[in-house]
Here is the input.
Amino acid sequence: MRLGEEKASWIQVPIVGPSPGRRYGHTLVFVKPFLMVCGGNTGNETVNDVWSFNVEKAPFCWNKIETVSHELPLVRVYHSASLCSHGSANGMMVIFGGRTADQSALNDAWGLRKHRDGRWDWLRAPYKNEKDAPIGRYQHSTLFLATLLLVIGGRTNNINDRLDLDVYDTETSEWYKFPGVGRFRHTNWLLESTLFIHGGFDQTSPNIPTDELLKLNLGKVLQTFPNLIKTLNNNITEILMPPFKENESNVIKYGPGSTNYKTTMHPSKKPSEKSTQNRNTNIRLAPQAMIAWSYGPDEDNKFIRKMSIDKLQEESKKLGIGFQNIKTGYPLYLEELFTFFINALLIPKDFTIDTKFDLPKDLTIKLIEEVQKVFEREPSLLRLRAPLKIFGNINGQFGDLMKLFEHFGMPCDSINQGDIEGFTYLFLGDYIDFGKYNVEVLCLLFSLKLKYPDSIFLLRGHHEDKFVNKALGLAEECISKFNDNLNDSNSIYYRLNVLFEYLPLAALVEDNILCVHGGIGSSLTSLAEIDSLERPIEISHIPTTLYEKIVIDLILSDPVVQEYELKNQINFERDYLNAGYVTKFGIERLTKFLTENNLKFIIRSHENVIDGFEKFANDKIVTIFSNMNYMGKNLNAAGVIIIKKNSDLVPKVVYPPQNLINSTRWIGRTAVEELYLANALESIKKGSEKMVNVNGISLDQFQLKLKKKNPTPQRIKVMRKF
Here is the structure.
């Protein structure tokens, strides 16, 4: 259908080549940019084939999808299909139920996904408990509400079966049952948290179509399961649980006998004269919107706030698959938590090298607990849309982070001179160690993540590993600032390292730019391998499985230094245990990986670069580093990369002032301390001791060696001169 200014008109689309042919009882779903036809009956047989139609590519043609799956769905007709846009099933077309060739009603669910290399495959949805699975049905409908699949109505081969409203949680594989509606061959639509069901046949009169419109308040329907309400609140800002009266019905019926029938819902009726007389034609837009939030996993918190109407309009800058609106209402305890840290730490114009923070230990622990829940819900491979800003290593340099925010915009709303409405922020790891504000950097980023969970993203770097950060600064800082016992499970240090195990490992921007901390190493072959990494992940520096090696590749590998170096090399500078598992990946390896995964280039951090950013290998690799004068001697600039809507890269850099050369921003060691480390390492090598106590921290020989050397070498060995 082509829409015009005054009326719409149907046009027939010219098709080249074969097509799905005549069929009925099939499904049609839009999975951008494809229309997907699945199953049905051709008039001669029931089928399970899938055809795709690219609406963005002329000449228009249908393509039959050949899957690589070992197991396929049964042939079926009168099934349902819908697109999941959240969680681990994001991007999948999910089919449910239907009637097979022998007239049996089905109750299975399958997801069809497309891989980066163009392959398609079917995955059968696992059911955690088969006894909770729905009754087999057909002529029903399904819709996705965040990560929840709603199975609505339908019929079985038994006319007396009353079917539930069944809900499947794609994250936990669990089914939930609720009172159903006796409809089949109907249509339905979701508006925020309200489900509308129109027409079809009622099971009480299965031969007479109905024109009734049903309206279900899903917030009320699902409220008996707080975990489902919490899932919705964590995924979609529009899904709120509105207040309701005890005697209010779950279902509002619009139809003959209802006062709403003529005035509001029936397409063939005009509003009554009385209703039009009461209508005020002088409509004005209020300067502010009222946002209400009701939430409470353990308590009954309610929050209402005002927001500038201008902020709503800013969201148009970030439209795209995978984005949701910035949350404008929060549980009260979360609001108070992240507001405390943001007010204390987001001070780009007021920070000086002498600034001291006093972060309460109990609130810091609570912040870690809450933000860990957010990271646990995210996939190992994030999928993001431009425009966005990308930050590299911070290494505890809070002042440099403030400087970058001051010069190039900071992640807060426009009322506070921020640009969070227009940009996504991506941080590539190594937030800690060597600097003197490790905990402050983490707490600021964590509080921003809590406030803007769909606009702030953090990847894991190699310092977010307890083997590394025990030796290089975080452990000492936690002891100094919080009097931590490192082995206590309630300590800041312990909790931070548990959280690190849930951080995502990579991000895919606009489907063709891969962002990681380190690189691709020697083992990673496809993006699906990153997607399949199950967290929490404790980093193994002597990997025993392919997936442990892939993690090492992602966080520790570097590209070769020269473009003529075509082959992979052992990365001795990063191989902390001298085990030979850390790689410098060559130009041939890089080119092949980009080609096979349809990628333009890779953005990474992990090495400091003299100008804050560096392009390498014909722009196939971009390195970004976001702290200045690394370790007080490299004189490098700090950089940020902006990816524009058209995927153009715009680097922004801040160069160090001359008086920064001899600054005390970095953790240093006296000659006496250097001698102590050398003697301690020699003692361990001789076998007289296995562990040595350094500043109250027990370190083994590998951690001592790590502590003695600079673990983030400069990519190009050039010193800046003034």
Observations:
- Residues 237-288, 290-328, 717-722 have pLDDT under 50 and may be disordered.
- The radius of gyration is 29 Å.
- Residues 290 and 306 are 5 Å apart (CA to CA).
- The first strand starts at residue 2 and ends at 3.
